[in-house]
Structure formats: C-alpha cells, structure tokens
C-alpha cells in the first residue's frame, strides 16, 4: 500500500479507555459521550453526559447505551444502538437476513 492511501484505512489501533469521551452518532444528532465500559476494540458502553436535543426522545441525559464502531467513507464512526440491536450483535444499517420458509410436510396418505 502506498503512503498516500494510508489515510483511507480505518484506524483500528485506537482503543477507547474508560472515562474518556467519544463522539457518538445518536438518531438525529451527534453527541459527545463518556465511555463507561469497553467490551472490545469495536464495542463500548457509553453514558450520555449532556442533553440530547433531537425530537426522537430515544435517549436522555444519563442514559447508558451500547455503541459500535463502523467504517463510513474511510473513517471510523461510533454509532449508538438500541438495546435489541446491541445485544443481538447487529448494526441497524445492515438489513436482517430474510427468513427461510419452513419446509412443507408431505400430506399423509390414508391407509386403505
């Protein structure tokens, strides 16, 4: 890789520390949140330490929520997830896999 292309790679060397701050994308706004727990290099639990102004009312000051790192246009973005998405280990930007239809049972023949 050439040196000029290096800035397009996500910086996976950065590992957040407990007590530090991250810029996290919440629905409708971007906020600075305090890291409460580090689960792995791409997953943290953050506490919202300022008042969200978005009209969604999904998050309030003092709420703790999970956040995951994802790459967007060659840069790292920390995105807050709902509890359901966070515990299931999926990102809301990736559509869920379609469910496979159940196999149909063959009709039983009546004994003659």
Secondary structure elements and their pairing?
Elements: E1 21-26, E2 29-40, E3 43-48, E4 64-72, E5 75-80, H1 83-88
Write up this protein:
With 112 residues, this protein is mainly β. The chain has a domain at 14-88. The chain is 5% helix and 35% strand. Strand 1 (21-26) and strand 2 (29-40) form a beta hairpin. The protein is elongated. Mean pLDDT is 76; it is low at 1-8.
Descriptive key words:
disordered N terminus, single chain, 5-stranded mixed β-barrel, mainly beta, 112 residues, 1 helix, 35% strand
- Could you give the distance between the termini? 75 Å
Query: Sheet bearing the most strands, described?
Result: 5 strands, mixed, barrel
Low-confidence stretches: 1-8
Described by the principal axes of the CA atoms, the overall outline is elongated
Order of helices and strands: EEEEEH
Structural class assignment = mainly beta
Name the average pLDDT.
76
How do the strands line up in the largest sheet?
Answer: 1-2-3-4-5
Quick structural gist:
The protein contains one helix and five strands; from the N terminus they run βββββα.
């Amino acid at each position: 890789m050439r040196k000029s292309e290096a800035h397009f790679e996500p910086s996976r060397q950065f590992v957040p520390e407990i007590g530090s701050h991250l810029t996290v994308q919440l629905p409708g706004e971007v906020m600075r949140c305090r890291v409460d727990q580090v689960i792995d290099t791409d997953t943290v639990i953050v506490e919202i330490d300022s008042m969200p102004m978005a009209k969604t009312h999904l998050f309030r000051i003092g709420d703790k929520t999970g956040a995951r790192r994802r790459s967007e246009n060659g840069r790292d973005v920390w995105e807050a997830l709902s509890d359901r998405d966070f515990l299931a280990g999926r990102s809301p930007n990736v559509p869920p896999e379609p469910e496979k239809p159940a196999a149909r049972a063959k009709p039983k023949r009546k004994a003659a």
